[in-house]
Amino acid sequence: MNDIVVYQIDCKVYLLRSIKLDHILSEISSFVDAALASDEKMLEFHRSYGYKNYVLSGFKELELDKCYKEGRIYTFSVRCVKEELCDFFAQNLADTKIVTMKGLVTTVKTIPELFLEKLYTVTPSLIKLDGVGYWRGSLSFQEYEKRLFDNCIKKYKHLTGKEIDENFSLYSRIQMLNNKPIANYFKGVRLLGDKFELHIAENEDAQNIAYMLLGTGVCENNSRGYGFLNYTAIR
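Given the sequence above, the corresponding structure tokens read:
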């Protein structure tokens, strides 16, 4: 039985300035950072190193011209695995304001623990290499998969404090969904990521970790909006 609970906080915001699609994750993360900075304890958490165990989506609405418009209302989600953090976001995001957007209202739900068939990235996943940046050309695909697997295991151990036998399959198949890197900007830096689909294995460890990933995000920079996942379930 998994002890983890995944919370989702949906936040509606009013745009004060138009934002291009490739800057959306940066602006949403700045908005969430501003909420965290309003509380001394949460500011300390924000500034700390290590896994934050929350992940942001982009806006759920689609703009065909890839520009989100000033004066319109949009929705994004924050997922996390700590009730205290869920409560903070639910209570504070609606009262947060930055140059590009202001909060309006939040709603909260929990994601049920289902038997997961597939996970797929909604925002690009990110694996960074020191001095290189994007992984292709520096890692083989097998090395990329190992980085992905190791990241998942470290998050699970950090979150639960449990040691697990790593000799198991997390997924039976991975399918990359993009033909070229997907670019987003953060603090003026162009970050390249990927979208993929994981067919989750049927063993208990795989199912527990896959459920956790819905709340923490997959791979790196999850609190910046990378690696937000959705799923299909068998039951």
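The two ends are 16 Å apart (CA to CA). Try to locate this feature in the token string yourself.
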